[in-house]
Amino acid sequence: MSGDPRAERTRGRLRRALLEECGERPLAEVSVAALTRRAGVGRATFYLHYPDLEALAVDACAEIVREAVDALHAWRGVPDPAAPPAALTAFFTGIEPHAGLYRALLREGGAGPLGELLHRELRERSRRERELAGAPYAEVIASAVAATFTGLLADWLHARMAASPQEISSHAWRLLFALHTTRLS
Question: Angle CA(138)–CA(144)–CA(145) in degrees, nearest 5?
């Protein structure tokens, strides 16, 4: 995406309009016409920035990916395996306003465009952090962390497990902590 401030403002308007539309109806029922009307832009402008609604939706939800990745890395010093970072619990608590949109893009098991983005971003951040710390098996552990968290989040969003945001935060943290401390040699 370009750094043109006008293009950034237009994309911001489209993202906000999509989130507002998805607050009223499922993504599958949102039309480009309704979206562009709400955003105050023309259809041609929409297609200049996005090939389709799914691409816009993934862009609009990219912030949740950054929040998830940051929440999982929001500790310093020696992490407490029994106490997830407050940012992780806040992440799970803050999902509700757009949970329907996230479910449309993050399918059960972690598939879907948002799942792919989350997995890729989390794997890269975990790998980089392990390498910086000199931890062994950076690629293996990073892949396992990304798959575990992405699948857990997706299944929780799709109500495949009953857990409060605090409980799922604690479960996710313990599982990820266990992955990081597993001896592979």
Answer: 85
